[in-house]
Amino acid sequence: MKIAVFSTYQYDEEYLNQFNPGHKITYYAVALNEQTAALTKGFEAICIFVNDIVNEEVLHMLKDNGVKLIVLRCAGFNNVDIKAAEELGIPVLRVPAYSPEAVAEHALALILTLNRKTHKAYNRVREGNFSLEKLMGFNLHNRKIAVIGTGNIGRIFCKLLKGFGCELRAYDIYPNQELIDNGVIYGTLEETLKDADIVSLHCPLMDSTRHIINAESLKLFKNGAMLINTSRGGLINTPDVIEALKTGKLGYLGLDVYEQEGKLFFQNLSEDIIQDELIIRLISFPNVLITSHQGFLTKEAMEQIATTTFNNIDAFINHKEMVNRVGV
Ligand code: NAD
Q: Mind listing the domains of the chain with CATH numbers?
């Protein structure tokens, strides 16, 4: 098959080439959107990632260009108009679970770094500053953790935090019996957020979850709580979170995703004037740690993404059951 891969970085090319069973692949560094959709002419399949925008307009351009299949190199599919794709007869397949440990462990890395301030200690020691001033942390042992969404990633995250001796509270529309048996206490969103020392978001971005963290839900947070988002930026109302940081309601914020990340993340903008006022405000807080959507970036996850992507393409070509097809 002739496949166009969008939003390509060196690591995508490396892993896709390693597992390519013989397709003709063209790699584009640019993201797919209305401006770049013309590049899909002559390709039967396109392979996209989190910040490629496949709305109705793009889908019509893909259809006109002869694209028959869309494969996502990720789990989330909020960037694709699934209904419009279905109407145009273009199947959309994703990688539903690739090393959920990768993202769960990254959420844990954000927690430990924010708490024990190892990023600050590293810089201090490099400059000959061996002071411990302002490096005070807290024990995770016995702390209450609220997990919003206990699917593949949230479930692993619960297990990791159990290992630290934390008390786990969870909110999910489908509670997980195995977690309940292991002592995780499910409740409503309100019950789960209340009293938690750390809130970690692991639910998908949908209409029902957009801005699930907003001025109202932040009122339920314990004063000085930590909020971690490795899921999707749109789960958080950023101006409301900034306000909560300013008042001290939020004591720590760890983000691997950001609602307007499409214009920023995955690029080196160190010599540019960044126009996004919200991210600049977030970066200015001493208790905010932002990584640019790297939760998935482990060798194991990249291998699984590549193999599942080629299995998805194989299922389409050989009329097998497309088990990873995204439905409306
Ligand atoms: P999943 O589908 O296995 O789990 C999602 C869970 O959320 C499910 O248990 C579901 O019942 C629950 N849920 C759905 N709607 C909900 C609601 N309204 N309220 C509460 N819970 C709800 O997904 P996953 O593999 O665990 O991934 C979770 C999210 O992590 C993805 O949607 C994606 O956005 C994000 N992700 C981020 C990275 C990264 O690199 N940072 C990588 C992979 C995935």
A: 2-98+299-317 (3.40.50.720), 100-290 (3.40.50.720)
CB contact at 8 A, 230 and 202: yes
> Whole-model pTM?
0.92
For ligand 1, whether the C-beta of 75 sits within 6 Å is yes
Strand 69-72 vs strand 144-148: parallel, antiparallel, or unpaired?
A: unpaired
> How many A from CA of 102 to the centre of ligand 1?
14
Report pLDDT for 310. 98
For 33, which DSSP code? S
Residue 213 is classified by DSSP as B
d(CA 222, CA 107): 20
Q: What is the DSSP string of 215-254?
A: HHHHHTSPTTEEEEE-S-GGGB-HHHHHHHHHHTSEEEEE
Q: Which residue has the tokens 């509270």?
A: 169
Neighbours of 24 (CB within 10 A): 11
Q: What are phi and psi of 101, to 5 degrees?
A: -60, -35
How many whole angstroms separate alpha carbon 72 and alpha carbon 258?
19
- Which of 101, 153, 159, 201 is the best mutation target for the ligand 1 pocket, counting ligand atoms within 8 Å of the beta carbon and taking the most? 153
Q: Which protein residue's CA is at the shortest distance from atom 9 of ligand 1?
A: 151
- For the chain, what percentages of helix, strand and coil (3-state, to nearest 5) are there? 40, 15, 45
Tens of pLDDT, residues 72-99 = 999 889 999 999 999 999 999 999 988 9
Closest Cα to atom 37 of ligand 1: 231
Q: Which helix (H) or strand (E) holds 26?
A: strand 24-27
The pair phi, psi for residue 80, each rounded to 5°, is -120, 135
* pLDDT above 80 (res 328): no
Place of tokens 């770049």: 36
Which positions ≥6 away from 105 have C-beta within 8 Å? 160, 298
